[in-house]
Specification:
Domain Cyclic nucleotide-binding: 30-123
Shape: elongated
Protein name: Cyclic nucleotide-binding domain-containing protein
Organism: Pseudodesulfovibrio nedwellii
Number of strands: 9
Pfam family, one: cNMP_binding
Distance between the termini: 46 Å
Number of domains: 2
Oligomer: single chain
Radius of gyration: 24 Å
Helix content: 40-55%
Order of helices and strands: HEEEEEEHHHEHHEEH
């Protein structure tokens, strides 16, 4: 049994029966991003998706299985505002841990403090690693164009390309268009129309794309 699983039983004992066990039906939210939060949750049965909205796009941060603590940041942040949305992917059960419960746990059970800190530190490390792996959008776009040119594809339809880039880099089409027009201003791309008057993006020279990649790396 994991440390957190062991502490679930201990938490119930420490709280002297004042804890709540909540049933969450599939597709229902435990809480929503931006709402006020006054409790953390321990998932004992089911599956929970943690997600957030980044530049108008949904981003899934984690899929949680028992036994997992989530929503704990609301107990530590001054404004207590939820920074993510938690939705049940299947019928689930969670133990509700209020701020009063947490104060009692921290006073009476050092092991509970240790387990919560372990979760927080682990999440911070994971978030940091992911942040470090996120590529520069501009460099990512250049690399993709370079791949197309390597395969002999020098001309792309404008609208589908913009949408695909936006979905890939989890950003807006407006921001992608800013990068595309910036590359066109540098002479790397040519923006125009084909014989059917459809907007297109034409890769000018592959060697120029290589030069930009080497400079940025």
């Amino acid at each position: 049994m994991s440390i957190i699983a062991q502490q679930t039983v201990q938490m119930k004992q420490v709280s002297r029966g004042n804890y709540l066990m909540r049933n969450v039906l599939k597709h229902n939210a435990v809480f929503n991003e931006g709402s006020k939060g006054d409790a953390a949750y321990i998932l004992t049965e089911g599956k929970i998706e943690i997600s957030g909205i980044i530049e108008s796009h949904k981003k899934v941060f984690a899929i949680l299985n028992p036994i997992s603590i989530f929503g704990e940041m609301a107990l530590f942040l001054d404004d207590g505002v939820r920074t993510a949305t938690a939705i049940a992917l299947e019928d689930s059960k969670v133990v509700v841990v209020t701020k009063d419960d947490l104060d009692e746990f921290m006073h009476d059970s050092p092991k509970v403090i240790a387990s919560i800190i372990t979760v927080l530190v682990s999440r911070l490390k994971t978030t940091t690693r992911k942040a470090m792996k996120v590529p520069s959008i501009g460099l990512g776009i250049v690399r993709i164009f370079d791949l197309f040119s390597t395969c002999g594809k020098m001309e792309l339809k404008y609208n589908p390309t913009i949408k695909t880039f936006a979905d890939t880099f989890v950003t807006t089409t407006e921001k992608i268009e800013q990068y595309i027009h910036g590359l066109a201003d540098q002479g790397l791309l040519i923006l125009g129309r084909d014989a059917n008057d459809n907007r297109i993006i034409r890769i000018r020279e592959r060697e120029m794309l290589h030069a930009v990649m080497q400079k940025k790396e």
